[in-house]
Amino acid sequence: MAPLLTPVAPLSPAELARARHYLYGGLVWGTLAQLWTLALLAFAYYGGMAARLAAWARGHHGAARPARETAAVTAGVFAFVLLLGLPWDLYLGFFRERAFGFEHLTLAAWLAQWAESALVYVAAGLAVAMSVFAWMPRRPRRLPWWIKAWAVVAAGVILAVALEPVLIAPLFNRFTPLPPGAARTEIERLARRAGIPHARIEEVNASLQSSHTNAYVDGILGSQRIVVYDTLLDSQTLPELSFVVGHEIGHYVLGHLWKGVGFTLALLFGMLAVLAGLFQHCARGRPPHDPATLPLMLLILLGLLFVLAPATNGFSRWEEHQADAFGLRLSGHACAAVRSFQREERTDLIYPDPPAWIVWWFFNHPSQQQRIDFARRACGATPPAPQTPAAPPRSAPAAAPVDGRTAAPPRSARGR
Ligand SMILES: [Zn+2]
Questions:
Q1: Coil, strand or helix: which one is 374?
Q2: Is 3 within a domain?
Q3: Measuring CA to CA, which residue among 176, 195, 5, 399 is closest to residue 184?
């Protein structure tokens, strides 16, 4: 059983060094993997691969066959980038996670999930690219091509966020209503207090993939829900869990998913405008409605996204801080929130206090220490009352050893 009010022991110097290694190694290798993707896209365009795929799809006649060309270029380039990116994914997502004690899948099962997610990427890429390149050449004077591309991508983003909880997430995990018990009673109390008594709150068997803990909200247009990892239910005490779910309810009530979609669409509009400006200087004579330019467009867009990381992460950190403040108020468990963050340092091997520039560039949440300090101030303002009974974790001891690559929350979700 987890101690209710006793503090969680801070990480020892050796554990801190391990957490630092886990963070910095992940950042370095993750950044190199992103640059590798950009290099592959540059090769796919400037090395002539995309043009050869388009020519192959045209066949002997030589006449343009836009749909076939787009399908061939998209499927070929996506397969090329995904397959040559597999070694990085394997290292970062499997071997490294296993070395740090998080991974639960066998290599074969991990590869099967990787293949499944790769197929989802190819299918989504085909749907978007075929729509964009089919629409682009028609009446180009009435609407600039990049605005047409933005409209298609914007519709794709909205559809993806709405359908992700229904179509994509269930491919990898099982989602079930939270079973009756102390956790469900507490979460229903919070939902009523927040004015969303009918919100869907589900448990996911994230322990299938790893021992990482998390909770997130996802979905829009009727598919929205709050998801709690089974690993979180098993490792945190009830007041701690109450804060975490209060934070997620904050994302839900404050409309963060729609704000995130709005931010993404505005960002994409700006990025596509820049793409349109850069295109003719980089395309070596090919027009934008030529499907063979797909890797060049992806290269410029992903390159922009790479350098815009401080802006996208800054927006996310702002929302996360709002959700923290909301969770503290809603749950009334500010002191338990401090312990929740400290426990998460252990269960997820979180290095709490990296330099400010690392947080500024890479972090989509405030640093753990910033979150702890914020909760601690609220705890100091309202000393803890033993209001909620100590909820024993369902199985694991409170300070469960940390591990794991989590079934990462979907990209469209607001994670913990
Ligand atoms: Zn969050």
A1: helix
A2: no
A3: 176
Whole-model pTM over 0.85:
yes
Query: Is residue 270 a part of any domain in this protein?
Result: yes
Cα–ligand 1 centroid distance for 251 (angstroms): 7
Residue 269 CA to ligand 1 centre (angstroms):
25
Give me the tens of pLDDT residue by residue for the chain, a chain 416 residues long. 344 455 788 899 999 999 999 999 999 999 999 999 999 999 999 999 999 999 999 987 777 788 999 999 999 999 999 999 999 999 999 999 999 999 999 999 999 999 999 999 999 999 999 999 999 877 767 899 999 999 999 999 999 999 999 999 999 999 999 999 999 999 999 999 999 999 999 999 999 999 999 999 999 999 999 999 999 999 999 999 999 999 999 999 999 999 999 999 999 999 999 999 999 999 999 999 999 999 999 999 999 999 999 999 999 999 999 999 999 999 999 999 999 999 999 999 999 999 999 999 999 999 999 999 999 999 998 655 544 444 444 443 333 222 222 334 554 566 67
62: in domain = yes
Instruction: Tell me, in angstroms, the distance from the centre of ligand 1 to residue 320's CA.
Output: 5
Answer yes or no: are the C-beta atoms of 210 and 403 closer than 8 Å.
Answer: yes
CA of 307 to the centre of ligand 1 (A): 23
Q: In what order do the strands lie in the sheet with 414-415?
A: 175-177, 201-204, 225-229, 215-218, 414-415
- How many domains in the chain? 1
Q: What range defines the domain where residue 33 resides?
A: 24-415
Ligand 1 centroid to residue 371 C-alpha, Å: 11
Whether residue 13 lies inside any domain: the answer is no
